[in-house]
Design brief:
This protein is an all-alpha fold. The chain has one domain. Helices cover 71% and strands 3% of the residues. A 3-stranded mixed β-sheet has the order 1-3-2. The longest helix is centred in the middle third of the chain and has 38 residues. The radius of gyration is 20 Å and the shape is globular. The relative contact order is 0.15.
Length: 310
């Protein structure tokens, strides 16, 4: 069972706190290349030093900025694997899934299911209100974006999944010896990590319903499927398609996406629509495909000593 793979007598929660600190430090180390390029540009090209995220994200070409931002996630992911192996005596496989091997078919099914849905949803919105969008397609910058995004965005999303649905979820299971507490805590922490996103400033705190709800959805996928494969595929599709297909004219960071959304963000039902409608539909599809049973036990039940030993 997925959560039980991380539960060992020697895996005290203090180790997870220390491991989290190491992961955070590794992430900061990964930001050094970006900081170095910024300082180089400031001192040699006499550009003003960026005092906020908007200035920072607009200093360079968006493809270069994306590349530099994504690098820190590679460092953090390496730290997750290091901490799991050397602090908790766990393999990457045990942090990923309860299966004997990582099920790439699950990852791909989840990826293409959500990618297809995202593209279809955009097309419906576009056909309904084409005046809200402008075509932004620039072949060469877009192809560079595709290359960078395809390589590095899955690293970014996988890093977040390994931290929240892998490392921390198993860590909280060590602490609580049940399933509901890891699910709740990782969802709340995952959502709170997005508090400083520009969407929160534009739409208000209600957008946190979406972020926390998405964390809850990904956690349910992981617990019901006894592994992170579906969450890995969904998260990668969500961020990659978002970066390639459409960006907004009010977001801090913009890409060479095919379209730019000119509409002003609103905090209406569309914010909670994915959480209360779309995510349950996806859970239904996954449950039928993978024959999920015992929902209550898998999401809220206690973890017994027998389960840990087995």
């Amino acid at each position: 069972m997925f959560l039980q793979q991380g539960i060992k007598p020697e895996n005290t929660f203090v180790k997870y706190i220390l491991g989290s600190v190491i992961i955070i430090i590794a992430s900061f180390v990964g930001q050094i290349p970006f900081a170095g390029v910024v300082l180089f540009d400031v001192f040699l090209n006499k550009k003003p030093y960026p005092t906020n995220d908007t200035m920072l994200m607009k200093m360079f070409d968006s493809n270069l900025t994306l590349f530099l931002v994504m690098i820190s996630f590679a460092f953090a992911l390496g730290a997750v694997f290091y901490v799991a192996r050397h602090f908790h005596n766990q393999s990457v496989l045990s942090l990923t899934t309860s299966r004997k091997t990582v099920d790439t078919k699950r990852i791909l099914f989840s990826f293409f299911l959500w990618a297809g849905f995202s593209i279809l949803s955009f097309l419906l919105v576009y056909l309904q209100s084409p005046e809200q969008f402008i075509l932004n397609f620039k072949p060469i910058p877009f192809l560079i974006l595709v290359a960078i995004g395809t390589l590095l965005i899955p690293i970014q999303t996988s890093t977040e999944e390994y931290i929240f649905r892998g490392y921390l979820m198993q860590g909280f299971a060590n602490l609580a010896r049940n399933r509901w507490f890891p699910l709740l805590m990782t969802s709340l922490i995952f959502g709170s990590m997005h508090w400083f996103n520009p969407e929160v400033t534009k739409m208000g705190p209600i957008i946190m319903v979406y972020y926390i709800g998405t964390g809850l959805f990904l956690g349910i996928l992981t617990l019901m499927d006894e592994g992170m494969e579906l969450a890995l595929g969904f998260h990668a599709a969500n961020n990659l398609i978002g970066a390639l297909l459409v960006t907004s004219n009010w977001s801090v960071f913009q890409t060479y996406s095919i379209f730019i959304d000119l509409s002003e963000p609103s905090a209406g039902f569309d914010v909670i629509f994915p959480v209360v409608i779309i995510y349950p539909i996806l859970l239904f599809i996954f449950s039928k495909k993978y024959n999920w049973k015992n929902w209550r036990e898998k999401l809220t039940g206690d973890i017994t000593v027998t389960e840990i030993i087995n």
